[in-house]
Amino acid sequence: MRGRKPKPASMKNARVSHRRIRPDATIEARAQCPEWLSDTAKAEWLRVSPILESLGLLTAADQTAFAGYCACYAEWERAQRFITENGQVLTLRDDKGNVRSVIPAPEIGIAVRMLDKVRQFSTEFGMTPSARGRIEVDVTPDQIAGMDPKKKERLTREIEKQIEALESTVQ
What we know:
mainly alpha
């Protein structure tokens, strides 16, 4: 596939633009946390899903992709914990206890791959600084200029809440 990845309609519709964007089919069903996720992955689901749902970025149609994010996050965390507790190298010894070789811990490669996958999924769901920077509101400059000051203030507060919610996902 060439060019930029298409954005979800909820992110497109949040953009300031003079054009109307055709929304994707409305999906009202909520995503359900799969039972097969590990406890760490379920905890990540419970931490992030309410934020994404409130922004319209997580529905039942996105469940598999978000489960993938949570599973990769859990595996990355497991690998990082192993590295923290055991170090970055493994010492292999023979039957007499002599050092036979020193090799990099396999968890290093796992951590690197999983962190890359987490980053990719995070971008898809608008959970990275650059992805958040592309989220805008669906109001034209003409509409803003002629807007009632109270409505303009309410819109500004709503945008700030959405930005805060997205920022809290990476903290």
